[in-house]
Amino acid sequence: MQFGIFSVSDITVDPTTGVAPTEHERIKAIVQIAKKAEDIGLDVFALGEHHNPPFFSSSPTTTLAYIAAQTEGLQLSTATTLITTNDPVKIAEDFAMLQHLADGRVDLMLGRGNTGPVYPWFGQDIRQGIPLAIENYHLLHRLWSEDVVDWEGNFRTPLTSFTSTPRPLDSVAPFVWHGSIRSPEIAEQAAYYGDGFFANNIFWPKEHFQRLIGFYRERFEHYGHGTAEQAIVGLGGQFYIRKNSQDAVREFRPYFDNAPVYGHGPSLEDFTEQTPLTVGSPQEFVDKTLSFRESFGDYQRQLFLVDHAGLPLKTVLSQLDELGEVLPQLRAGFEAGRPAAVPDAPTHASLVAARTAAAAGDTREEASV
To answer: What positions does the domain Luciferase-like occupy (predicted)?
Structure first.
């Protein structure tokens, strides 16, 4: 089980001071947050991609490469990479380069994106979002798995005898998670390729995501990648914790009430009741997070959104300290009773080992013929 944090890279006014950080301050802060994540023992740091204010992360691979140079074991990912408006060739090149620089500590989450104006900025039509996601990933998959690619599709110019460079490290592509909050077509795509499915369940009631994840698990098994319980699932989460739950609610309420993503809607109490958001004591946070397993089955990756809604850097780092204190309890809770058949989250090392084992099996089969 991997635990980590993800950032959507928003630049939001702190409602308690009326001041927003500058772009430069937020960019430098995200590096500190990632390094703190490794310091407290987290496994993953993931950064989103946006091309519009009030977000700063237009080039996640640049930021992640900088973070890779200052960390040792942290798995670096995205949340998400826009498969619809990015050229698959550029994604293949950028992430293979990052994979080499980070010595394999890289995977990525692909998504369609939910900002309508971005599509025409990059010459695409949002009404073609699903076909774009399907076709672009098919090309990306081939670019990483085949040394020479001939390609003709509907959304980009053809490729003739094209080789994406650099080639993936150890001839093993970065592991891909397909992120979605509503689209069964994306769950189907993840299942077809045997990739991971990340359901960012932070905004909607769990019943919606139970259906979406259940569908992915069924289709994963249908395509012969393993049993439904062996499908690779990731979930989102949010928290604000203090030793005293009343202090947590009092401190977080102004940020919740004014946050662009969920402010001025349901009350804090309703939101914490219906979604993974926990605002309370460390034990309340642990208990609620462990309950995700009851709703979605055993899964592989749990990421938390921490640096959002205008929370100042000092508070974010303090929240990560709180997370670090309960992390051993979370690990133990998810490990207890976990079936042996449920795989760990894929890493570069495990993917290389699987490829080596498969190659050895093919050699033995040929020798026996």
So the answer is: 1-297
pLDDT in tens, 227-252: 999 999 999 999 999 999 999 999 99
pLDDT attached to residue 113? 81
285 contacts 241 by C-beta, under 8 angstroms: yes
pTM of model > 0.70 = yes
Instruction: State the Cα–Cα distance between residues 75 and 59, nearest whole angstrom.
Output: 18
Give the Cα separation of 293 and 322 in Å (integer).
22
Picking from 199, 194, 196, 195, the residue whose alpha carbon sits closest to that of residue 223 is 194
Give the DSSP per-residue string, 40-68.
Answer: TT--EEEE----STTB--S-HHHHHHHHH
pLDDT tens for each residue of 4-59: 999 999 999 999 999 999 999 999 999 999 999 999 999 999 999 999 999 999 99
- Eight-class DSSP state of 350: H
Q: What's the full length of the chain, in residues? A: 369
Question: 283-309: string of b/e by CB count within 10 Å (b at 16+)?
Answer: ebbbebbeebbeebbbbbbbbbbbbbb
Query: Cα–Cα–Cα angle for 248, 254, 256, nearest 5°?
Result: 80
Distance CA 323, CA 304 (A): 10
Please provide the distance, in angstroms rounded to a whole number, between the alpha carbons at the two ends of the chain.
Answer: 40
Tokens representing residue 87 in the block: 């050229």
Beta strands in 37-158 (DSSP E): 44-47, 75-78, 81-82, 107-111, 149-151
Question: Sign of torsion, CA 19 25 30 32?
Answer: negative
State how far the Cα of 307 lies from the Cα of 17, in Å rounded to an integer: 16
